[in-house]
Amino acid sequence: MLQQTQVATVIPYFYKFTKKYKNLESLANSKEKSILKLWEGLGYYRRARNLLATSKILVNKYNSKLPKNVDEIKNLPGIGDYTSNVLIALIYNRPTLALDGNVKRVISRLINTNLDKIDFKLFIKLNKKNIFNTERNSDLVEALMEFGALICNPKTPKCNVCPIKKKCDFFNSTKKIKHLKRTMIQKNINILCYLSKEGKIALTKKNNLGFLNTFNLPQIENAKNKKKLKNWKLLSKYKNSISNKKLNINLYYKFSKNIPLDYSWYSIKKNKDFMPSFTKKIFKQVSVLF
Ligand code: SF4
Q1: Atom 4 of ligand 1: nearest residue by CA position
Q2: Three-point CA angle 26, 32, 35, nearest 5°
Q3: CB 248 within 8 A of CB 189
Q4: CA 133 – ligand 1 centroid, Å
Q5: DSSP reduced 3-state for 242
Q6: Domain locations in the chain?
Q7: Beta strands 219-222 and 185-196: pairing type?
Q8: Of residues 134, 64, 131, the one with CA closest to residue 98
Q9: For ligand 1, what atom is nearest to the CA of residue 109?
């Protein structure tokens, strides 16, 4: 749940989720639809599907236990390098670091070196003895993440109360590195909605928004592609931010009986199926036409 999502947003979802699914078996035996319902509004729904798929594999193949080998963990759906390292440290107390943005920033400040100049894997390898000078590797991993979020935070690190400031090159240097800002990607898109007089909208899985490509959406075009707009009417212009993408959207529509192959009709009013908020916004806007 926490991937790409802030803790404060996740908390109510986490409580609802763990209230319903009290253990791995109950999760593995549930239906995708029920899980997606609980996830509704949290976004990045692929995480929910992966969670279900992973729970089934753990129950059926690993006797409801997490494998002890990082490569085996990485083979589970939705689990990459970062998550597998967090899991292996938190659950099995292994000496490993999960390199998220917080941890990388802490390291970069401790050695007062810009993020893009550090080979983190090599850094950890070379400093293994100093970093893992503890029996409590699971606490170390969690503490570093929290430390980066709460003390050595991105904009205003609380150096005065920092317990390791004496060893920090950033704190002690007169030439401090500057933190690189997260860059937002701007994208201008046209959304083209085929509508039917009966209150339906044509959707397809063929869209060029990679982060939403598991969902049925209307036709999405690069806004530069003006040739496609002949016979389409502009309904609205609005903005939608998803992760590090800022979308400037022009929403077009046309009533049509014929739709391209790969499209299917969906009822705008009656459709109660789960859908991402991106699609809901489109539905809400085109519904004023009926
Ligand atoms: S002294 Fe400041 S910059 Fe250094 S680790 Fe502590 S909070 Fe971060």
Answers
A1: 168
A2: 65
A3: yes
A4: 20
A5: strand
A6: 7-65, 101-172, 186-289
A7: antiparallel
A8: 131
A9: 3
For 1-5, 10-14, 186-190, which range has the lowest pLDDT when averaged over its residues?
1-5
Whether residue 200 contacts residue 194, with contact meaning beta carbons closer than 8 Å, is answered with no
Top-level class of domain 7-65: mainly alpha
- Ligand 1 centroid from CA 92, angstroms: 29
55: closest CA among 20, 30, 86? Answer: 30
User: Could you give the C-alpha distances from 86 to 59, 63, 74, 226, in angstroms and in order?
Assistant: 20, 21, 11, 47
Q: For ligand 1, atom 2, name the residue with the nearest CA.
A: 159
pLDDT digits (tens, 9 = 90+) for 255-281: 999 999 899 999 988 755 567 778 888
Q: Is 107 in the pocket of ligand 1 (CB under 6 A)?
A: no
Q: What is the pLDDT of residues 206-225, one digit of tens each?
A: 877 766 666 788 998 888 87
The Å distance, Cα 152 to ligand 1 centre, comes to 5
- Of residues 208, 192, 152, 205, the one with CA closest to residue 176: 152
Tell me the CATH class for 186-289: alpha beta
Residue 124 in contact with ligand 1 by CB distance below 6 A: no
Ligand 1: atom nearest CA of 162 is 6
CATH architecture group of domain 101-172? Orthogonal Bundle (1.10)
